């Protein structure tokens, strides 16, 4: 297998056939595209998600909090806390650990959540720090949103722009190299993308406006996320390449490294489907969050429409960022 997410066909064959006993309390079970599980407790539901940070070398502690809480918000739930597992390579010093936990603290304070616990360990099993986060949120049991909820003829909406996280990671990890080829103003602007990495605000706003499906755009980019919501919902999808928002900084950096921004890790951007996309876009824009209708949910087939070309969207493979790493 290539670096990155395990392919969906292998997930179906090996992972989703070995999930223990289905419990009646679980309202959303593990499945392709479902980043969260939902467990009902009376009138409320606990929403849980877990994710590692592997692609970034800088600000990984901060990213671990933001990215996992994005999954919670994509379910329409409010994050309340995280559990952090930190694995350090042999020879790590106290300052390395201190930097990570201060970054975690920063992310938690920004989202007004608590670090509930976790585990830290020095091990020969890793050659760089690996952080795995479990996030926990809460919502009314009748208000959570599923990735598998997309309906026929739904508008497909993308918030902000694609490639935000990938651009931010690449600039932070390769700033000196890039500074020899790309202007300082572009690089510094890309570094400011850190303020756009969270989708908690837009997730909670959209959840109150009648959405059918929400999904944080992570590894595999917009094309990977489009495939996952269509597959999870047993529907088709068509998105138009000329409507997908891509910031100029992302275009410049992707051109330099020969990366496809549509397949680049994109936390900070959310894909939403709704029967009334304009209503969602208008409400988000009232809250100063950019949003764009980029396509439709269809009966079958998964396609990127590029001019007169209809390009099939395949299951997500290794994210574009690994072509650099």
TrEMBL record:
UniProt xrefs under Pfam families: AIRS (PF00586), AIRS_C (PF02769)
Family, similarity comment: Belongs to the HypE family.
Xref: InterPro entries: HypE, PurM-like_C_dom, PurM-like_C_sf, PurM-like_N, PurM-like_N_sf
Lineage: superkingdom: Bacteria
Protein name: AIR synthase related protein domain protein
Domain (PurM-like C-terminal): residue spans on this chain: 197-302
Positions of the PurM-like N-terminal domain: 33-138
Gene Ontology biological-process entries: protein maturation
